[in-house]
Design goal:
Elements lengths: L8 E6 L6 H5 L4 H10 L1 E4 L9 E6 H37 L1
Antiparallel strand pairs: 1-3, 2-3
Length: about 100
């Protein structure tokens, strides 16, 4: 007799800034595939440049860990973009003076 323990799969919608979707996905999807393998989840991004949420599916604990990590990466990438933008504005203002 074989017994199967099946934990319930969950899906969570996570609002992720669309500006960082490409960076999270990576070239040819390599970064997100590695991320999904690491956390044993499935991640689906919305169509390009929409503010629809990212959907993470898998076992509840794995989904929660993946969600937390994605939000940290989003924060890191957005702040890096903001710094780059601030430097560009500073340089533009400096060269106009």
């Amino acid at each position: 007799m074989l017994l199967f323990w099946q934990e319930e799969q969950v899906s969570v919608e996570v609002p992720i800034d669309p500006r960082v979707h490409r960076r999270l996905i990576g070239t040819k999807g390599r970064a997100i595939r590695k991320f999904m393998d690491t956390y044993r989840v499935d991640i689906r991004f919305p169509s390009l440049n929409t503010s629809d949420p990212v959907v993470i599916s898998g076992l509840a604990d794995n989904v929660e860990e993946a969600k937390d990590q994605l939000l940290l990466l989003e924060e890191e990438y957005v702040s890096a973009q903001d710094i780059i933008y601030a430097k560009e504005v500073w340089w533009t203002n400096l060269t106009r003076a």
